[in-house]
Amino acid sequence: MFSVVQVSDSHVSPRIPRFNANWEAAVAAVNRLSPDLVVHTGDATLDGADSEEDCAFAARGLAAIASPVRVVPGNHDVGDGGSRCQPATQDRLARFERHFGPALWTEDRPGWRLIGLNSQAMGAGDGLDRGVAEAVGEALRSLGDRRLAVFLHKPALIEALEEGEVGYWAVPPAARGPLALLLTHPALRLVASGHLHVARLAAHGPATLAWCPATGFLVGEKLLPDPRGGARQLGLMRHVFRDDEVETEILPIPEAEPIEIDSFVDEVYPPERG
Ligand SMILES: [Fe+2]
Ligand SMILES: [Fe+2]
């Protein structure tokens, strides 16, 4: 048995520090739990896609966690495959990796293989998609009899692997090729994502689709009228890995302030930036 604490969407910055205190509260909560591994599922930075300063600041914040840490990139860290203003590019990915380590990773623990994927590369072109497909192929070729857990920023799907356009919500259906190999694999037990700033647990065969809440801020009714069954709350997730299953709990961050971004989103993310 081992435990992984998942944190997500901290959106920290030394330039616009509105969510930084909530990150400090999250670090204190994580360190009290003392897990074997911490995975940050992206949007570690407010705007690391365009700010070296934000990347350096967020990396220092992650270094305050006592457990080993892995990070996967979010749209605010490396851009987005679907964005005109801030597309995911090799340069942005290289900056992420300088500060946070590999965007694609495999972490083996007894009986388990944990895979970190870059959801922002899926559908992005620029050779980025190919990297994801190769990483998934390699992780499955040498899987053996391990069980599988996948961590990525955007949800892999909302309701089904093959579904209509999902817009902002999840990896675009047309870009899910590498994910399909994982999502239909009999060893899969967990797909853990961030991005939506709501908490939800749903079943996908023998696996759990875990939407981790944010540490940074809530998204209210104006910006997110229908949270698709997710709960608007700040928090983190603890995944306890047993022989053949993962037990996932959503935990609060006691000292975090429930900041809702709707009324001031334009100050933090000007609309022309997409
Ligand atoms: Fe986010
Ligand atoms: Fe995001």
Bound molecules: fe (ii) ion
Q: Helical content, roughly?
A: 10-25%
User: Counting H and I runs of at least 4 residues, what is the number of helices?
Assistant: 7
- SSE topology string: EHEHEHHEEHEHEEEEEH
Rg of Cα set: 17 Å
Report the strand count: 11
Relevant CATH superfamily = Metallo-dependent phosphatases
Task: Note down, in words, how this protein is organized.
It is globular, with a radius of gyration of 17 Å. The strands form two sheets. It has a six-stranded mixed β-sheet, with helices on one face. Strands 3-2-1-10-11 form a five-stranded mixed β-sheet, covered by helices on one side. Helix 2 packs parallel to helix 4 and helix 5 (128-141) runs parallel beside helix 6 (177-183). The longest helix has 14 residues, at 20-33. The N and C termini lie far apart (42 Å). The protein is of the alpha/beta class and 274 residues long. The chain is 24% helix and 20% strand. The structure holds fe (ii) ion (2 copies). One fe (ii) ion binds at residues 9, 11, 43, 74, 195, 197, 214.
Topology summary:
Blueprint (H helix, E strand, L loop, with lengths): L1 E6 L12 H14 L3 E4 L11 H11 L6 E3 L3 H4 L11 H11 L4 E5 L2 E5 L11 H14 L5 E5 L25 H7 L4 E6 L6 E5 L2 E5 L24 E6 L4 E6 L13 H4 L6
Parallel strand pairs: 1-2, 2-3, 5-6, 6-7, 7-9
Antiparallel strand pairs: 1-10, 4-5, 8-9, 10-11
Helix pairs in contact: 2-4, 5-6
